[in-house]
Every structure is written in structure tokens, then in C-alpha cells.
Amino acid sequence: EVQLVESGGGLVQPGGSLRLSCVASGFTFSSYNMYWDRQAPGKGLEWISGINTVGGTNYADSVKGRFTISRDNGKNTLYLQLNGLKTEDTAMYFCRHPSGARGQGTQVTVSS
To answer: How far is residue 1 from each of residues 28, 75, 101, measured CA to CA in Å?
Structure first.
């Protein structure tokens, strides 16, 4: 069974940074592409980044140049470094397995 546990969210001022983590279990982490999505209050789920098995990455235009996705296959962990945060980045952030499975999410709130 795919299990994903996100952490690292919090309250940060505009311009600040956070690093999100997602610990994976129940599958061979290194064999799968992985993704980050987010859901802002009152809005639908938005894909924001993906990483393939060899470290290739892609990003939504809304976060390109500010967010960085990475993975540590030895630790079965997916990361998302968030820099230059804006109030519009406020959302629940989820990591996602290609099957569609997600964790419980971690809340990021950007506010002064």
C-alpha cells in the first residue's frame, strides 16, 4: 500500500522560504516519478512540480524559478524547496504517487 507523509509546512512571511518533505513507503520509491500538488482555499487541485526517476524536473509556470523539487532515493523522501514565497502560494501541499495516491498534506500559509 502506498503511504506518503508530508511535513515542513508552516506560517511564513512573503519572501520567505520553507522546505517540504514527503516520506514514502509501501513501494519502490526510486522506480517512480513523483509529483507535488497544492490546493488553495476554495480552489481546485493544482499540479506544481514533478521529478522523474533520474532526477529530471518540471514545474508549473506559477512556481518556476522559485520552487525546487528533489528526491533522496536512499531515504525514500521527496522534497520541495519553496523560496520567494508569495501570499498566493498559501495552500495545502501534497505529494503524489503516479497511481494518484496522496498524503494528508502540509499547510503552507504566507502572510505578513
So the answer is: 11, 18, 10
Note the helical H segments in 63-108.
none
pLDDT tens readout for residues 23-73: 999 999 999 999 999 999 999 999 999 999 999 999 999 999 999 999 999
CA distance 63 to 86: 10
Phi and psi, residue 75, nearest 5°: -105, 5
For residues 47 and 33, the answer to whether their CB atoms sit within 8 Å is no
Residue 9: name the closest of 36, 42, 45, 43 by CA: 36
Q: What SS3 state is found at 30?
A: helix
Residue 21 to residue 79: CA distance in whole angstroms: 5
Place of cell 528526491: 71
